[in-house]
């Protein structure tokens, strides 16, 4: 599967991605999109979220530090996005850690058409009913039936489900891809998952919006990000310099780099 | 025009700059001010913004992720600043992108004495009536009559207007300066414009508050920041390392560096 | 005093630290905890803060950009923490700068059992009644009777008080430790004090909760952080690269490094 051309499409079209994200990662998510060649905007005021979502190519919703105000922001933005056909990527950070977070994630999934759900294996396990334990925002490993649960959830709800971890799993309910790129240091910096969610937004923003397009865009986004992480880790002295080099690598990454290093297995 | 001595004045006086800024750049704006040698404080609670603005040497207001709570914070802080003669720098991030943002910027300009308005060319074009297109928070180029519109707006309202871009334009309504320093990578990191706004706060904070003083302080702030960016770009491998080196360069920058590299043209 | 073994305990137990912190440092505080080997979570919604505090090993409360919503968040989280025996570390950023901040800090100290109070010498001087001046969030030096005031405050209220500065002072009301590690560049980056507060959270989270345990954990946390800062400063070109190297150093720091470099004097 050649997916490097997706990176070129993102850079050529420079899609505007509207992020309603958490307080920890607003900066790094914006910088990640800029480094990649996409265009980030952050906005959460009820007075403008629908306007902003309407001019975006994708919206990325992240539950990392949600509160009632932001929950309403996401509600308004996602309603506008659904109405205008703007794809939604949902990152249910900490689903399973408190009832409030799990409830907020499920309510969005129940009331809106979400195109891509991306979380770590613990969060996805909780939401798809596969089980798994979530302490804070760190996954403690998914239950055994994760792939089956993901596939069922994706098919029943008509969305793409991605569970990232040492290996990343992506499914549209039929096909399952196992992605093996990445570096352990991604878990030693905050916001790598959240930044990846924003990156998925950029890629689905340049897709045709079909199920096949969304699936391939998600696989391409995760693989590009993880190949950049591998390149960034070479020569880094720890998580601080890794993070800096990751932004550099996202900027200099080429389609050729991605296709040469991609480790995508159709399960 | 020798402006390096402004940098020395900032370092000697270490002005306290009270920022009410957006969620994306709070950290980098604070670090920029610290690296330069100024003293940042962030505060937005209605209970204390007036107190904080009153002890500051300048306040920097940034509309990047505004919401009704923060709009009121800015209202209270700017009222106190006007009463105490503390200069206000306004950064109308995303003006033109949504009616809410444009409205919030214009209301501040209409109800308060703002000393410096700084935005990218798209935002300034929208606010001064020159036209221009804003998608998200990225300018798509200003209309042709930008300089004339800026000059008129500055003269009518008695403030300094600065529009940054590949070349930066600064006017007090009479004189127009064209500033040619800077590096394209400033557009590849988030918050470079917002950090610059905070830096202008530090410089106008050590000015005498006259129109001539505010104009020269604004020119000096932009030039210092952009010279540091040029020095940071030398040897950087991408936007991640550029951002790190920019903080280092702001810290080690000398008045001599600035005067040797300054490219300031009186239009 | 050998305290390197505390670092190993933190890494082995990977304590979950629930932070309710300010908008400037959310990212760097999370990255600091991850680099060290602890597990951060940020949450402030009234609907979930008590749940999150209850599953944490420590909570870290930081008043840097407080507002009424967050004040209530801290109230709810600290109530749950007290009920469950989860230690609380309080960082009264800017106490003394405005009545609102001083009041919020004192109210938490009066209504909850706080285990560790850590601020700069100006903030601690204000709260303990020793005097001192606070402009914005920078201390301008503590009054002369700081050590006496700290000791009295700690004894009367049964908590650990830490005042950081060029030398750091830590007391449980009886013993006073003077800690001489650290580097001046810690004052040139934002959030180093706030990150240290989060780190103290990780260390007290693996303590036995006795007064002696809390005291030693606090001394160990400050010393580990400051030794990492010394190592980070070697070869850094300014505050930007210092911050990056600090995360790297926290990640690679060993108990042996800490014990070899620790400069702890019992006063």
TrEMBL record, chains A, B, C:
HAMAP family: Thz_kinase (MF_00228)
Protein name: Hydroxyethylthiazole kinase
Organism the protein comes from: Alicyclobacillus sendaiensis PA2
Role summary: Catalyzes the phosphorylation of the hydroxyl group of 4-methyl-5-beta-hydroxyethylthiazole (THZ).
EC class of the enzyme, as a word: transferase
Pfam families found in the cross-reference section: HK
Gene3D superfamilies: 3.40.1190.20
Gene from which the chain derives: thiM
Family: Belongs to the Thz kinase family.
Residues binding substrate, per UniProt: 42, 191
């Amino acid at each position: 599967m050649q997916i490097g051309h997706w990176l070129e499409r993102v850079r050529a079209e420079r899609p505007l991605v509207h992020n309603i994200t958490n307080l920890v990662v607003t900066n790094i998510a914006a910088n990640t999109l800029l480094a990649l060649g996409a265009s980030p905007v952050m906005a959460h005021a009820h007075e403008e979220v629908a306007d902003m979502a309407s001019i975006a190519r994708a919206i990325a919703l992240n539950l990392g530090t949600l509160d009632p105000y932001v929950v309403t922001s996401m509600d308004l933005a996602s309603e506008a996005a659904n109405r205008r056909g703007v794809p939604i990527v949902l990152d249910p950070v900490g689903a399973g850690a408190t009832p409030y977070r799990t409830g907020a994630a499920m309510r969005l999934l129940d009331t809106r058409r979400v195109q891509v759900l991306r979380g770590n294996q613990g969060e996805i396990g909780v939401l798809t009913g596969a089980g798994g334990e979530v302490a804070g925002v760190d996954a403690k490993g998914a239950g055994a039936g994760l792939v089956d649960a993901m596939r069922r959830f994706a098919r029943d709800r008509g969305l793409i489900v991605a569970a990232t971890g040492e290996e990343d799993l992506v499914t549209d309910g039929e096909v399952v891809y196992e992605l093996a790129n990445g570096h352990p240091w991604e878990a030693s910096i905050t916001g790598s998952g959240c930044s990846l969610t924003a990156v998925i937004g950029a890629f689905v923003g340049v897709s045709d919006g079909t199920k096949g397009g969304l699936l391939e865009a998600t696989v391409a986004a995760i693989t590009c990000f993880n190949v950049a992480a591998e390149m960034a880790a070479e020569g880094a002295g720890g998580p601080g310099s890794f993070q800096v080099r990751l932004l550099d690598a996202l900027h200099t990454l080429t389609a050729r780099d991605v296709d040469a290093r991609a480790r995508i297995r159709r399960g």
